[in-house]
Fold each of these.
Amino acid sequence: MPGGRLTQREREHIASGLAAKLSYGEIARRLNRPTSTITREIARNGGPADYRPQQAHQATIQRARRGTRTAPRADTPPEGLMEEDLLERAVRAGMPRITARVHRDLLLSEDGRRTAAELTRRLNVSPASVSVAVNFLLRQGFVRRERDPRRRRDIYVIDDDAWYHAIMTSERQTLQTARATMAVAETYGLDSSVGQRLAKTAAYLEHVSLDIMEVAERWRALLR
């Protein structure tokens, strides 16, 4: 049951899900458990890289016998759990996991700046994976690229305007979709049922996107 203790079989499913690179939310959905339960279970039992279902189950039994409340791991402070939750929310929103890890690392860095080599080393992933991730973030407006002329390397930067650029990039893409939809509507004829349906969709997308862009501009100016 969702409110009861995890069984050993459920822990084996968690390990299988981690091996398959599933998000915590997806693992939770398959087990009919809250995502917070899965997050805590993994965090207190070695983290995603070192989670072992049998050891986790035995540790839970021992804690239950002692009758003590489970304490977070010494190397997993509360802020670590919040950072993990931040990652999982990005994944659930549709961002690829490695891209979400790159984004989180940039977001939480002191100056919001990392080179590709630093990201590769810190996240323990391949240079190709980092390249794919930063290109996605660049296209979506979450980061920008700067060039270090002295060392001939790219630096990826996330700053106070990152979310503004991401929103504007997304809404420009939606506007393009709206205008393409209207073009198809006109091809079918605005007096036809298909044309009317597409025209209403295009009008809705266009007006909402323009409103969002206006609000983004206004709040950017106010927050400055």
Amino acid sequence: MSVLDVFGDDARRDEPGAAPPPSPSPSPAETATAPARRGRGTWPPALLAGSVLFGVIATLLLLAPWLAPYPPAQQDLVARLEGSSAAHLLGTDHLGRDVLSRLLDGGRFSLAVASVTLLICAVTGTLVGFVVARRGGWLDTVVMRVTDILLAFPEMVVALFLVAILGTGDLTLVLALTIGGWTPFCRLARGVALEINGRDFIEAAHALGCSGWFIIRRHLLPNALPPLLAHAAVRFGHKLITVGALSFLGLGVQPPFSDWGSMLSEAIPYLDRLPMLVLAPGAAIFIAALSVTLAGRGLETRRARAGRST
């Protein structure tokens, strides 16, 4: 009897020149879940590009008091309507103010108004959507008809109506952006809540005596958060453009303060002489809105991939 017969496969593995044993093949479950894990861990190019671009813009605007070469309201009538130079990288406007300084300072107002109004709309719309989905009945019908009415009026029309009552100013701008801005979030949150309400874990929470607010906080909000974030990113670009449009019409910030929309309005008479006065704030609005919209589309793509892989 040889040593191979006594120790079997262990001795054969130790024999010089013996081939290594075949590695165990992955199970069907591991093969199916590997692409799913890779799909969830990857960032779509749109999400990555939009996040990086918006991060750069937000950093520049936060550091505007230190990056701006001149005070934004400082006038120099001798140097009015000058082109790009070493002293003024983007030139000066009709009052001799540095365009780059005003661009950095005005962007802080534009992004602040868009962020505040979007936060109010998202929180209000999400809570209302969850509540009407949980309650149902006449409350759901009334709220949905109200959202239909508000969606029928553009934000510009609402702003003009409010100006006639309240006058121009920051309050008018915020109200114009929030009165109808909560309705898309309400519809989205309601749809997600109606989809989840019939699931087993909701029935179990009811059986355990959990309150409605606990169910909203513990079950509805975590499931609705991914689509709400993606929608909020896309809506942010729309809010930013609307802020610029309302300021362009004179319904936003008032002099001596400025934002990108008011800079566009002041630069129109000098378009043929110094196009940079229009191109600078216009490009700022476009790039900022594009960056957030790209991030929102990337979030939607990432969520869709995760849904297909599960």
Amino acid sequence: MAKLYDYTAFKESKPSSILVLLPINHSNEANASFGVLSQLTFPLAEAGYYVFPVNLANEVFKQNGLTVANDIHSVNLAKLRETFNTDAVLYINIKDYGTNYQLVQSDTRVTLEAKLVDARTVKLLWTGTATASSLETQQTSGNLFSMLISAAITQISDSIRDRSVAISALSATRLFTPNPLKSNGILYGPYAQKSSSN
């Protein structure tokens, strides 16, 4: 059984606004940071938080000479709070991103690690990780030749349209959708539209 996450600091902080920083990319795909960043706002907003528009935030960083994720992540929290007046800052690391061709299948996989920090007290509020894979929805016929052809076609198709962005959306949704059954999911924010069953 998974150990229950300690939400004491999170509940004390009660963040309502989150500044999402450009993710640090540990994958081999050059466009991973922006592919993932484009998918983070929606699930966080659905969870009940005000999320600063990522394009606007990136423009502020760019105007201050910060265009690399590692440099943005190293900015002092007090400075981020002064500039954006945010309650919390979200740091993301991309562990996997992209399509890998295997002998009989092609797998587009995205793994994200998240850390939410209180911009006022510098306390760690929450950490989480999530993975999504295109193999979760693929069906195989059992015929080796068909599987090889299908894998090749899938890889070419995924490379052209960057399926990783869509898989990023699934990974981000898993990461930021509050779920009482998960032992370490993010908590609902103050603007959450929870149904009576939640």
